[in-house]
Amino acid sequence: MQAHRGYSDCFPENTMLAFREAIKAGADGIEMDVHKSADGEYVMMHDPTVDRTTNGTGVIEQLSYAGYLNTLDAGYRKEPAFAGRKETRIPTLRQVLDEFQHCGVALILHVKQLSAPDCLALLRQIESRSMLDQVVIFGRPAVINQVKRTQPLAFTQNDGAPGPDGYGPILRNAVEYGHPAVSVSAEAVTQEMVNEIRDSGKLVHCSFLSEDYERNMKRLLSLGVDFILGNDIGRMAKAVDFEKRG
After folding, report:
1. Residues of the chain with pLDDT under 70
2. What's this model's pTM, rounded to 2 decimal places?
3. Helix (H/G/I), strand (E/B), else coil: 204
4. Under CATH, which number does the domain 2-33+106-245 receive?
5. What whole-number distance in Å separates Cα of residue 171 and Cα of residue 63?
């Protein structure tokens, strides 16, 4: 079970609070989104701007982390109770890697609009902490392919959307470049699709659940998918526990 932007259903997304609470709730992995600030800091934020989730405004790549982004409150728009807390400030990649290093939970970095050189710099932060076996770099094919060529031990995953030919091109790309997993829509995944991906030696990653957790978790588990990404990790954990007891 992987927590989408942390435990984002109940806590401010992409904050240390959401990440910590996801682990407490039983997450095996935490997905988070990465952008680069004007002063070269990698920060956790889904949107390219800070407007939706913080008390600030502007495009992240045009804003400095030091003196601006690090002062913003990423909690109060979720609920007033989260406002003004240190753990709901915008976290950096360094902070995330340092806190969760070797904690037994996978960190899935959705690199969004980062360029290949930026991803390679990000990769060096991961390598310097000996975390290649814990971190997944998830992004556009052209970028992820280059990361995999540079560091074959990196766990990379393609987030390309299916085209007219369905998931075939995504699967072929994973096979060609050695990406260990293939991401498919939780709504669209079928047993035939799971079997084809598995027969190609790849893991099946489904994203993302935001409603009807019990029914959807039961269906996805019955299909034999390997990873399930969702917003409410607490309800996902309860559904898994129910299936085990059932």
Report:
1. 242-246
2. 0.95
3. strand
4. 3.20.20.190
5. 37
